[in-house]
Amino acid sequence: MDFDSVALDASSMAGPLEARLHAAVSRGFRRMVFAASDLVGHPQGVEAAVALVRGAGVRVQALRQLSDFEGLEGPLHEYKVTVAKGLLGLCRAIGAPMLLVSASGVPEAAADPVRVARDLAKLATLAVPKGVDIAYQGRPGSAVACDVVSAEERVNAAERANLGLAIDTGHLFVADRGLDALDRCYGDRLFLVGLSDAIALHPQEQTRGERDFVRVFPGDGSHAESLLELIRRLRVIGFHGGFYLNACNDDFAQLPPELVADQARESLLWLIDQLRHIDLPRRRIPAAVRA
User: Where is the Xylose isomerase-like TIM barrel domain (predicted)?
Assistant: First the structure.
């Protein structure tokens, strides 16, 4: 784990795209995750945003995100297909090899596993000509896939090589099953892991939801040991996908991007230092990568 292999989510920082890029690159980050709104919201348009990213010398790890795609019918489904095609086009334009997809949370989404698998397979097929992988992520409260285990079940049912699983540790430790959820995951179906920690806003309360936590970078919250154990377990199951740091919160949205990038850099340096003291299995490099 180093600055070449861990990306920074641009959404963790506020300000113009130019300022966020400069803040990340000047702190050593060579990979980034972008939201589609970062591109389409640029004052000079999408082409200018793409040129800016390419000129900054960073590699794009993923584009986020498509939401509420699967489990719909009729005109609403066709509308979401159009949205998906547009996002896949943005992936190709910016050089993003992966599109992050969040499980449907709208009431109209049916939890029928057959329909969900069909829709995810359709999305993966649409992504093939663009050379894009689909990283599917459970969403707390979703009737379709509310956690890591159910999201992986949907991915396995769709049976597409370019369709895999994404994990958000912010969800995992706050609203999901924690580290135990990883015991049922297969490393080759896991494409992307977002690393973040959380701090409880009301520490004395026994029952809390996601809104009762503030998302912070790894090492700054209450789940430091669990994060390190998660990385160890991921290595055990043969995970060779990507990591990215994500700490979107209301406070960081009011701070200069340089300050947030400093926090991200300190977080990654903390992870690197801590992992030196953990017995990790040797990382298995896929044959295609070795070649």
Answer: 42-267
